[in-house]
Every structure is written in structure tokens, then in C-alpha cells.
Specification:
globular
């Protein structure tokens, strides 16, 4: 139950972050500039947290042996943050995040079905219905 509450709390931070970053983009004149500032502040916070939790040593050898594609997560995060900063002021928080959630559901269903990055969970009628209901929700948010 605590993990579900933490997930809800983390999810609630996203529209707040989008609004804050969109305001910063208005001030600094571009979504990419705003994302850069956001990532710099986040990097500083994570650096402090990593030192506090794990100490100053770093597993450089293991990092250098990792496959190249594990570092794509940072690039994907940057695309996500810049996209949200650009879209939220135009679409509003609810439609932006309804579309983002729909995209997350669709991508997650494909990743699960193919067993890419996660244990394999084949597509079935209930999962498809769940995604269709999410898409219906997006349509309702967009229409009304």
C-alpha cells in the first residue's frame, strides 16, 4: 500500500513540475532552456542525495562496462521534459497528462508483450480493454 501511495505522490508531482517549468520557459524564453535549468537543479539534488545515501565513491568501472543503450534514459527524460514544457501551456494540464498516460499505457503494453526491459506479459483482451478505456478517457477530456 505504501508503494501505491508513493506512486500516486510521484505522479502528482508531474503536472506541478510541468506548470513550474512552463513558467520558467516563459521567463527564460524557451522550453529547452527551462529543461536545462530543471535538469541542472535536479542533478545537484541527486548528487547530494547520492552522496548522502552511498558516500562519495562511484562505480566507474561498472559504468564503463555497461551497454551504451542504458544511458538513453537521460535522453528520453530530456525529450519528455521538453515536450511537457512545450505542450502543457497549449493543451492544459489535464489533456497533456491524459495523452501522456495514454502513450505510457500503449508503450507499456508493447514492452510487456514483447518482454523488452520487463518480464513478458502477453497482450490479452482485458489489457486491451484497459488501454481502450484510457483512450476513451483522453477523448472525453479533449472533447469536454
Amino acid at each position: 500500500m505504501i508503494w501505491a501511495l508513493l506512486a500516486l505522490l510521484a505522479g502528482a508531482m508531474l503536472p506541478i513540475q510541468a506548470g513550474v517549468n512552463a513558467e520558467l520557459a516563459r521567463i527564460v524564453g524557451h522550453p529547452v532552456r527551462s529543461a536545462l535549468v530543471s535538469f541542472a537543479v535536479g542533478t545537484g539534488a541527486l548528487l547530494l542525495l547520492a552522496f548522502a545515501l552511498t558516500g562519495p565513491s562511484w562505480p566507474w568501472g561498472r559504468m564503463l562496462q555497461a551497454p551504451w543503450w542504458v544511458y538513453v534514459g537521460g535522453l528520453l527524460g530530456a525529450v519528455y521534459v521538453v515536450g511537457v514544457i512545450a505542450l502543457a501551456p497549449k493543451l492544459g494540464a489535464l489533456l497533456t497528462f491524459a495523452l501522456l498516460i495514454a502513450g505510457q499505457f500503449l508503450a507499456s503494453m508493447v514492452l510487456d508483450h514483447l518482454g523488452l526491459l520487463y518480464p513478458r506479459h502477453p497482450v490479452n483482451a482485458a489489457r486491451v480493454l484497459g488501454v481502450v478505456l484510457i483512450l476513451l478517457g483522453v477523448w472525453l477530456v479533449r472533447r469536454y
